[in-house]
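Q: Joint fold for the lines below.
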Amino acid sequence: LRRYDILSSIVWGIIGLGFCAGGIRLGFGSWQQPGPGFLPLLAGSVLSILSLALWIEALRSPAERIRKPFWEREGAWKTIGLTLLGLVGYLLFFRSLGFITVTFFFALVMLRCIGGKGWWTALFVAALLSLASYGLFAGLLGTSLPKGKIYGCDCRDRSGISYGA
Amino acid sequence: MDAIAGIVQGFHTALNPQNLFYCLMGCFLGTLTGVLPGFGPGAAVALLLPMTLYLPPASAIIMLAGIYYGAMYGGSTTSILVKIPGEAASVVTCFDGYQMTLQGRAGPALGISAFGSFIAGTLSVGGLMFVAPPLSRFALAFTSVEYVAIIFFGLTLLCFLGSGSKIKAFMMAALGILIGVVGTDPVVSVDRFTFGLDFLMDGVGLVPVVMGLFGVSEVLHNLEQQEFHLWAGKIKNLLPTWEDWKAALKPILRGTGIGFFYGILPGGTAIVSSIISYGLEKRISRDPSRFGKGAIEGVAGPESANNATSTSAFIPLLTLGIPTNAVMAVVLAALMIHEVTPGPLLIQKNPEVFWGVIASMYVGNLILLALNLPLIGLWVRLLKIPYTYVSIFILLFCLLGSYTLSNLVSDMGIMMVFGLVGFLMKKFDYEPAPLVLAYILGPLFEDNLRRSLNIYGGDFSIFFRRPISLLFVSFGVLVLLFPAFKKILGGKNR
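A: Joint structure:
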């Protein structure tokens, strides 16, 4: 894991330094009266120092004889990439398309592209899943779910926030 | 006598039909989540939190507690049958449980694991009943100084007990504290690291973080491997034989003791207690070579330990108001939503919640024994469902669980970010437990630290002048310095 440790220690180190800088900007205060930047500066320093320690440790360790591939199987990046894209799509279209439609498309993509199911199976299961989950969450659990702007619904939740806006 | 009177009152609450129903629901859902890989108790409890908003506080906590210890029962099923831990603490059960399955002894393995869990669960509830009230009274004297010391000790211990690199564990704890500071400063109302985003002003939500790190990342990891072992065998003879009992009874009792002790410690987790129990059984065994080849002690001890831990973990939460793991943090959130403040005053102010939850655990353990033995066929059938279906289901639950608590789409975004971070952490060998615990305890730590320094004029020696605080800080420092001592001593020996 030498390569990964070098890479990750740099990333965490930068994040730690970022929090330190933010902590200084927010104000450390004094020991008697610690300010809002007190803990960010303290924890950020710990993260940066430990990242440096990990980086040195990784550099000093012998190089790996066999490089462990990042993906555990060939083509796994497609599965993960598609799942992540599906999740991002879900987030982006949740309000405009509404829960049932967006869940249907999300399940369809997952079943077709990742599960390798045939069109009919995927369409049937996706429809069943989206309707059943709506029934479970909105019907049984009383969750307020958006119905979709494209259908012209006045989609307001319990707190009165409009989804269509 | 207080405890006896309290538990009688508790049974009155727990045996009320409504609470009995929620206890059953919790145990059922817990076993279900325990059986499904990639959907641990943390994500399950977080998901069902919004559902408990409309329930009385005692019913809500009874159900959430049922999910937690139910998952510990259910987690062993997949470990034993298909070598996939249903939840992290059952990973040790894979070693010998799966070997027993290969030898055609899946039945006794599942049976002893259920009985062991029952014995450990029931004994630990007894312990909880007698330990919690005096601890509560003792904790009444705690000030912010003691809280800082206990949290410091808890975090260092968790990092130290982790299975991977200690440096990485401490890095994750520091990162967790940093995530916890995001939002409006509680003292001077200044926005910290919100980058002008409104949804970050209240901080990073607990539920999306837990769902992302424990739910989404696990699904991504499983989808990447795409090697899903489906169980096709049949289970016979669930009841362990006399020989099995003779071999397993002492490990069950030892596992209970270890698990109970680790649950009380802030930072002691179910996975650590099961690893320690396994190690102990192997060390004291007359023939350690049997371990890893289907020794029933290797199933009985760790399974009892993780169940005992899941029960005793309620002690620091109920008596001190300190959650020791992600599930307890969600339970704490549930208590706060219901305006019940856990801590030393809980027994006096809300006895129905305190004793009701304890009594429900006795009932819950009985329900779980019934759910896990006669209904084992049902849980096994779940393992035959293709993982794509399971993964869509879990992802949907995580998305909606994050959304429903505040009806914010941004929470789903936070969950996805933490899902991806959790997936990468797994690849780069970082453990999520220190991050989550530090993120949960960070605000509590900061609040108490700032208050202590404020009261005592910035004098750090206060942490060494009060006896309880001195004890915990010293333990914490010893834990921190232990690797260095080990290195020095190791060097001298060479």
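Q: Anything notable?
A: The mean pLDDT of chain B is 84. Residues 106-139 of chain B form the longest helix (34 residues).
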